Amino acid sequence: MGPNSRSTVWVDQIPGLESTAASVQVVSDDRLPLIVERSMFWDASYYAWLRALTPFPAGLFDLDVVFLIPHAWVFPVWVPLLGSLAAMTAAVFLGRPASRPGV
């Protein structure tokens, strides 16, 4: 790709890949600094597949870039995992009619 260009690949819209997890490593041929945006679909399976396919993360305390706007937000891997677990737990309990009185 040329400078100041952008490309988006919607993996879930490619026939046969709708339920496939994917990751990418971006490296400059000239080792120049890059700014890369990634999708915000975190859950435990993201890190499990990333670990299965790459050497990262080696542990829960490895640092990962979580956001790049307005600046890099770097956290240990356990932070987004905890957020994912909290979101899944809330979805399970708030989404079950039995957990809501009067429903």
In short:
With 103 residues, the chain is α+β, with helices and mostly antiparallel strands.
* Main sheet attributes: strand count, strand direction, barrel closure: 2 strands, antiparallel
Strand portion? 5-15%
Our measurement of the CA-to-CA distance between the termini, rounded to an integer number of angstroms, reads: 54 Å
Tell me the number of structural domains: 1
The ordered H/E elements are HEEH
**Low-pLDDT regions:** none
Query: Roughly what is the average pLDDT, rounded to an integer?
Result: 77
Count of beta strands: 2
Characterise this structure:
- Helices cover 27% and strands 9% of the residues.
- By secondary structure, the chain is of the alpha+beta class.
- The protein has one domain (11-99).
- The chain has a two-stranded antiparallel sheet with strand order 1-2.
- Strand 1 and strand 2 form a beta hairpin.
- The longest helix has 18 residues, at 78-95.
- The mean pLDDT is 77.
Describe the structure using short key phrases.
103 residues, globular, 27% helix, 2 helices, alpha+beta
Ordered list of secondary-structure elements with their pairings:
Layout lengths: L43 H10 L9 E5 L5 E4 L1 H18 L8
Antiparallel strand pairs: 1-2
